[in-house]
Amino acid sequence: MDLSTFLHERRPAWKRLEELLDRAEGSGLTCLNEDEAVEFGNLYRRSASDLNQAQTFVSGDATVRYLNDLVARAYLVIYGRTRIDLRGMVMFLIWGWPAVFRRYLPHFLLAAGLFAFGTVFGFLACFPWNTKDPASLEAAHNAQAFLGPTGMSTIQPREEGEKDPTGLQGSGGYAGFSMFLFTHNVTVTLFAFALGITCGVGTVWFMFENGLMLGVLGAVFAEAEVTKPGHYYFLTFVTGIVPHGVLEVPACLIGGAAGLLLAQGMIRARPWPRREELARLGKEAFLLVSATVPLLAVAGLLEAGVARAPDWVFSSALKLTVACVFGALFLVYTLLLGWGRNPYYRRDGA
Amino acid sequence: MIFHEVLTTERVPFRYRVAGLGSRTLAWLIDFALILVLWAAGALFSLPLELGREGLGAALMMVWIFAVYWGYFLLFEWLWNGQTLGKRALGIRVIRWKGAALTFYNSAVRNIVRFVDALPGLYAVGFAVAACNRENRRLGDFAADTLVVHVEQRATPIRTLVDGRTAADKARIGLWRQRLASLEREQKQTLLDLCLRRDQLRVAERTRLFRSAAQYFESRLELTPEEYESDEKFVLQLAAVLSEQGPQEEAPRPRRT
User: Fold this and answer.
1) Is B227 an 8 Å CB contact of chain A?
2) Residues 42..81 of A with a Cβ closer than 8 Å to B: which?
3) Chain B: residue whose CA lies nearest to A255
4) First and final CA of chain A: distance in angstroms?
5) d(CA A148, CA A125)
6) What angle, rounded to 10 degrees, do the helices at A292-302 and A171-194 form?
7) What is the per-residue pLDDT for A165?
8) pLDDT, tens digit, for every residue of A8-25?
9) What's CA B92's distance to the chain center, in Å?
10) What ranges do the domains of chain A cover?
11) Is the pLDDT of residue B172 over 80?
12) Rounded CA separation A3/B193 (Å)
């Protein structure tokens, strides 16, 4: 066909498609009525086939480019954002997520293993095995200073009667503190996930590093327990850590597991290209990490409200009980929900 | 220019022009400036609160910083078909590899991995990675299966040919049509293409091309232009006769927005 006849015949349809596009690009296809929507579909298919024809038969570069842009615009509108399904998101978190978690349990366990390795390493390096021997003590203190977090001095075991700087606060302080914990923990978790894109090296290091911190702190408090018995330093440490750690540490590990999943997508190619495998596992990893946000919101409230409260407000026993209850709830959630045919999470691929 | 080809479900290939590092950096600078403005606005709002009731203002500010930092890119790209304000200003947008618009998951993954792309500062990692692959994708793009492209919001309309054929011209049409019929198909298309694209040419080239076209067709078709008629007008009239579009079809002006 000749370019001029081609243009002459088809241009009205393109103009009409442009008109409809101008409206649909702002507010989506929903702003078209039924007839217009059908017309839009027809015009789009017609233009796509015109583009095809123009690419093959017509040498007019301007025409091909015009049609290309027209089809590209229409394509983005047709394959655009679907409506926001809040109910679907909530239902996924309740029923779908546990299935995702169980599917990627090996990744979680690997992340947990790295974390545990870090903890044991940190503890062994920083605990003075012979407190009578000054050389051993010094070596342990050096290790603590070297491995420990930078803000170490604020979390030293406190002497009797010393004022706790993180004591009970007003409601504003409570809100602030729980918010700080929430935002900080979400950042840490998502960071563990994002680091997966470094072929997993970053995530492995990050898991180990976080375990290490816990191990070093454990050693510091254990040393205080041994050198100054009778103050229950270690118990304070445990009751301070466990009530929130029971949700925070798993959340962080889930972030790590998602990171490892991302790394798997980068490293292991399938019969299909790496790009596709990474995209597929990227989506799975995102699903895996998505539940940590609500989890950390609960953990933040728990830590600010219960774990950091002085002992005269909540006794250690109560703190531990609360921790156990939440830990049990988390286990029930991950292990018991979402078995069987699961409409909220469908496995695809291998 | 680098193109990313997409196959529609009807198996028709079309192309997106991949956005370069320059426009992406500029878009990011705009976005970053806007984020700073949003943070400053939050500070103005929460400072009196903090003075009134200690802790509350700080808590709000913390949430605000966090929400803006994560929400700005994520929500804009999700809800605005892959565009933030900066990207819209630069005429670029994020799309999925297969050509469709972003979903929530694409947007979220892309912007979580931004963390690593921003390491160790000023997007050094992301910049290096993007500079090293053909489609300028950063790590977040790889993880989320996305890329950034230019999308002409307004495709340049095709100029319609010619207007103003005078009565005197009409007398010549029969002869012209006859002579034009002897042209090869390629010649006809070149003639039409030149006329359709004349607005995209710079003045010097435009004059030169139309002059050589006019000379060629003059000798090839043995036609003589009117006295005082420019080369361009002569060629345009030839094209008009060729495309058989009468002067009654008025030429729509190109829309510029």
Assistant:
1) no
2) 45, 48-49, 51-52, 55, 58-63, 65-66, 68-73, 75-76, 79-81
3) B112
4) 48
5) 11
6) 150
7) 44
8) 778 888 888 888 888 887
9) 8
10) 3-78, 86-336
11) no
12) 9
